[in-house]
Specification:
- This protein has 8 helices and 13 strands.
- Helix 4 crosses helix 5.
- The chain is an alpha/beta fold and 326 residues long.
- It has a single domain, classed as Rossmann fold (3-Layer(aba) Sandwich).
- One of its GO terms (molecular function) is carboxylic ester hydrolase activity.
- This is Dienelactone hydrolase domain-containing protein.
Length: 326
Amino acid sequence: MTLLAAILVTASPALAQPAPAQPAPGDLPGRIEALPLRSSTPSGTAFLRGVPGDDAALAGELRLPPGPATARVPAVVLVHGSGGISGSTDLWARQLNEAGIAAFILDSFAGRGITSTVTDQDLLNSLAMMVDAYRALDRLAAHPRIRADRIAVMGFSKGAVAAVYSASTRFRGLYGSPQNRFAAHVGLYTPCNVRYQGDAQVAAVPIRLHHGVVDDYVPIAPCRDLVERLRAAGADATLTAYPNGQHSFDNPTSPALVSVPNAQSTRNCRMEEGADGVINLAGTNEPFVQKSSACVAIGAHTGYDPADAASVRANVRAFLKDVLFR
């Protein structure tokens, strides 16, 4: 080989690639555990009547932050939305770990044979996911590395129903454990358009809602009404609005605007719990039916907004650090 050929071979990009970037230690969990848990799958009406559903075998992934192997830390249960667990959920878990908080990524779908409920919300009632959240709380409260009195719950869209309404004293009495309660409740783009009996009577813990103003999938207005009712009843509840936020505006794996043409949306519906746990269209005795009520719309949008995403992540992390490390 000539000297020139040797120089060309040495300088060839194919043979002289830079070493791949390595994640910083703070970006990685200290330990990961897959934890099974038992739950049940009631229908919406059965849930409201206090009737357990069929048994469900679920699981979740617990990510403990770096630190001493015996240190006890606070935790957050993350409850996914209609599309299931996403890369955004992973990012939230990483950022919680960076703050010294364990993250439990609850999977309400796989154990039930569900991939997505975007086009058929009847596959799993949102209230059933609240049972899952309570069982996750019990599982974590018994874990030797978790502080039982410092467990929060955070949900996204469909999962935010579980995260926000699990503060209800009525629902905790029906499905929670007397010895365990969430230390805080956080909902992102929460469906707030069902008024449940006694839903303003909640635990004396903070409730924080975060919602995009331009969300046409799950609109913000009903959440303004819910927070007003909660505050009028003396609850520590707030709603933070994000001016450019579409649905899932915190998800960096999404483009800025995505059409979801077959999505079921109840953006035009206002509902209330009637007699015997039946959900009616507000002001009527007409039962709400997901597949046939005239107010149900088909098609909506999601989309990532970098500025609003950065804001909500900073706001939620600051809040959780304040509440969980008191």
